[in-house]
Amino acid sequence: MALRMAVNEEIEELRTFLEGIVHYLKPGARVAIISFHSAEDREVKESFRYWAKGCRCPLEQQICTCERQPVLKILTKKPQPPTEAEVARNPRSRSAKLRVAERLDTVLLPVKGRK
User: Fold this and answer.
1) How many CB atoms are closer than 10 A to CB 44?
2) Spans of the chain, pLDDT less than 50
3) Which CATH class is domain 2-103?
4) C-beta of residue 99 within 8 angstroms of C-beta of residue 79
5) What distance in Å separates the CA atoms of residue 77 and residue 110, rounded to the nearest whole number?
6) Please, what is the end-to-end C-alpha distance for the chain in angstroms?
7) Would you list the domain boundaries of the chain?
8) C-alpha closest to that of 94 among 37, 46, 11, 31
């Protein structure tokens, strides 16, 4: 699995998707992503957290100058695993994790130098 993910650059593709998806969502729209690998889940979690965070000014800075507002609201605090019934019907689903976020009604400012 790790070899396939590296050869197909799946994490990079997922990262590109996650960086662009918020631009296509209208306010109130939801994005739900199911990941099957911990590296994929980590990317989804970090991306949702990035877009859900408002100010990006350094902690040492007393006054916010970036004027950023949160763009997403995370609806699943923890990833949702499959139910026992789902795993019984589909054993491959046992590694699945679902995360959901909702687009807020805020203006999306250009991003400079996202890590």
Assistant:
1) 22
2) 115
3) alpha beta
4) yes
5) 26
6) 26
7) 2-103
8) 37
